[in-house]
Amino acid sequence: MIACAAAPTAAWSRPDAVSRALTAAGGEAVLRRVLAVAWRGTARMMLGKVPVDLNVETRIEPFVRGRSDTWLESEGRSTIRTVMVERDSAFLVHEGAQTALAPEQARFERQQFGAYAYLLLAPAFVSAASATRLNAAREGYPPIALTLARDGRIAAADYRIGTPDHEGRSLRQHFSLAGSVSSNGVRFPRVITIVQDGRPLSRLTIRDFSVDLDAA
Length: 216
What we know:
14% of the residues lie in helices and 50% in strands. The protein has 216 residues and is mostly beta strands.
C-alpha cells in the first residue's frame, strides 16, 4: 500500500553496522531501486484472547501507498476485507462498499505500513546507535529502532505509533523477525510477529514474496 519519493541518504556514523544491515537485506544499490514489495501468506490475529486465522495479500510502495487484502481462512475470499492507504488518505473496502477512514484511523494504517517499509532500510534515514542497534526515520512517520542479528539481518524492531481513535495515546509495538524470503536480490523476513503494549497481536508468515525494481 504505499509511488516512491526520492530516498534520503543513510547516515554513516558507524558505517560497519549500517553497511552490514544493508548488505544482509540485499545491498544498498538494489534496495534503493525498490519500487514495491508484495507478499502472500497467512496471519494469526488475536482479537482479545481469541485467535483468528487469515489469508493475506499485501503490496507496499515504501512510504507512498499500500494495499492489504485479508480474509478468513475458514470461509474463503467471500469474506475479503481490503485496506488501501494513500499518502493523505485511507479506505476500507468490504462487501463491495468503499469507506474513507477517519484521519486517526488513516494515520494508524499508514504508520503500520511504514513499519514494513522501514525493513527495506534504504528509503529511510538510517544511523547506528551501536554495533547491533540502528535508528531509522522518515519524514511523516514515527522513528523506529532496529536490532541486528550477528549476520546483520534485522532481528527485531521497536516502534511507537498513534492509536486509531481520538484518545491521542500511542501504542508500543515490538516486532520479532525470523527466517528469510527473497526476490530480485532483496531479502525480507519470512515470519513477522507483533506484540502491542506487551500483548500478542499478530504473526504473519509469508509464503510468496516479490519485489518490483526500477530500471537499472
